[in-house]
Amino acid sequence: MVRFTYREDGPVTGYVYVANSKRDDRFRMARPGDIIRNDNPEPPFIVVSHTTEDIILTDWPGTLWTAEVVEDSAAQEDESDFTRATAVRLVERLPAHTLFGPHGEAVAWVADRATRLTYEEADLLTAHRAPGAARAYANAWLNWDGLTPSSREYTEWEGIISIGVEAPFSPVGRGLRTVFGAVVAQAWRVQGEDAMYTEDGVEEDPDLHLVEPWASAALCLVEVAMALGAPDLLTQGDRKLLTDPWRVLTSPSLS
Known about the structure:
The protein has helices at 25-28, 104-114, 119-128, 133-142, 175-191, 214-229, 236-250, and strands at 13-19, 35-37, 46-49, 62-72, 82-94, 196-202, 205-210. The protein is α+β, with helices and mostly antiparallel strands. A hairpin with a 2-residue loop joins strand 6 (196-202) and strand 7. Strands 1, 2, 3, 4 and 5 form a five-stranded antiparallel sheet that branches. It has a two-stranded antiparallel sheet with strand order 6-7.
């Protein structure tokens, strides 16, 4: 969805996403037409992404607005896909799930649930993840026409949540990454540093991995998000296979 873009011959318009975790009530409580202005011209700036694809979801959930830049920052870099602003005029509040495509509401539903997942629920998802889940998930990726030829050479799709450095990143935008990130954040809230273990990598920058059952639960919810967010990429049987654990978790069953 791209309703506003950067224009050379007019004001800069775009999108502002503010994670609820930032506790910035200026955006959550605002109305269309309100001007949000920083107290000083120093960072942190108000980031106005020029398209929806440019928005980086640092945390979920959050508030999404279309906005017009009233004052930009002298620190703005040329050729950026966003504008650093010190004041914006809010145009329209949009459901944040619009960032995840036509079925984005379902993806957001999974991400929302991931933010409050308990250890016991993570274990429940892990126990009900089907042996064929990785295969079905791979089929969804391979049925997507957004894959580049080089990406189609991948042989292992389990756990892949994004491809490339430019949009589109997946069949549901950054939705898969958002769901995975929500599980990671919740695992940290529940278990702290014990939710992760290190492997390989240099001492200053080791590779971090989720412990079980969070790791398998994250895979499971990412697969659910794919099935619900891009249903046309899967057969009816594969959709059911990937969403069966979700039915166990959420009950009643999905139609």
